[in-house]
Specification:
Blueprint: H1 3-12, H2 22-72, H3 74-82, H4 84-92, H5 95-106, H6 122-130
Helix pairs in contact: 2-3
């Protein structure tokens, strides 16, 4: 037998009893590595699809909440358009809308400037602080 034949047979034949051949060991390791790569790719694809569905559902729920708000209470809808930060919070937490409506109904919607009478103007208020 030639050296090439010996090398070929040593690659195919088991090294000993209950031991696989070098080729079998290489095939098993390669298949394991490829299987892990395929499983990771499938997992990533499925997680991406689930994430996309969740984002779409959240966006649709937000749009529905905004549309329902506009239909049910145009005054609050107009107010929210004026305050985008409050609108963002209201779309994420619909309970903010009830709080906002109660706040507006009670008349304590924000801080009021001091009113010292009908003759009070800016120049008079400024003179009070100048001393």
């Amino acid at each position: 037998m030639s050296k090439i034949e010996n090398d070929f047979y040593s690659l195919l034949l088991p090294l000993g009893e209950n031991q696989p051949s070098p080729l079998a060991t290489w095939v098993e390791a390669s298949a394991h590595s490829q299987g892990r790569a395929i499983a990771t790719e499938i997992k990533t694809t499925l997680m991406g699809q689930a994430s996309g569905r969740a984002r779409l559902q959240t966006a649709i729920e937000g749009d529905m909440a905004q549309d329902a708000l506009t239909v049910n209470n145009p005054l609050v809808a107009g107010l929210l358009e004026s305050f985008p930060t409050v609108k963002k919070r209201a779309l994420k937490n619909p309970g903010v809308i009830d709080f906002l409506i109660n706040k507006l109904a009670s008349g304590s919607g924000g801080s009021q400037p001091p009113n010292n009478g009908p003759t009070d103007n800016f120049a008079q208020r400024l003179n009070k602080y100048r001393g």
